[in-house]
């Protein structure tokens, strides 16, 4: 009888390690309702430092999950918004929310 080697899909592994990184899911969830300014995201995740938020936002931008818009107003207005790639996570986020409601105390 042949033994089947169980292997993890490299794409799944990469996606999970990125999405599972602390704070990324919360940032993505806050942006699901539309574009926000840094201070608004920071207020929605009060337990996260602004330094960490800034780092994670840069990571998410590099991954193509969110985009940073700079509006040349006085004062300058900067907003963050999910890209099409980021918005594609909506059903995943809804499933996690549903699972959490059923199983997380």
Structural notes for this entry:
The protein is mostly helical. The protein contains six helices and two strands, in the order ααααββαα. The protein has helices at 10-19, 24-31, 38-44, 50-62, 84-87, 90-103; strands at 66-71, 77-82. The chain has a two-stranded antiparallel ribbon with strand order 1-2. β1 and β2 form a beta hairpin. The N and C termini lie far apart (44 Å). 11% of the residues are buried.
How many individual β-strands? Answer: 2
Strand order of the largest sheet: 1-2
The SSE order reads HHHHEEHH
Shape: globular
Poorly predicted ranges:
none
Helix content: 40-55%
List the helices and strands and how they pair.
Elements: H1 10-19, H2 24-31, H3 38-44, H4 50-62, E1 66-71, E2 77-82, H5 84-87, H6 90-103
What tags apply to this protein structure?
single chain; 105 residues; mainly alpha; two-stranded antiparallel ribbon; 6 helices; globular
Quick synopsis:
The protein contains six helices and two strands.
């Amino acid at each position: 009888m042949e033994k089947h080697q169980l292997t993890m899909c490299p794409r799944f592994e990469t996606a999970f390690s990125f999405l599972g990184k602390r704070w990324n899911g919360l940032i993505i969830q806050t942006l699901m309702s539309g574009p926000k300014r840094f201070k608004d995201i920071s207020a929605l995740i009060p337990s996260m430092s602004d330094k960490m938020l800034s780092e994670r936002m840069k990571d998410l931008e590099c991954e193509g999950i969110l985009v940073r818009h700079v509006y040349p107003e006085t004062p300058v207005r900067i907003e963050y918004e999910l890209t099409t790639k980021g918005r594609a996570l909506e059903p995943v986020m809804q499933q996690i929310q549903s699972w959490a409601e059923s199983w997380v105390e």
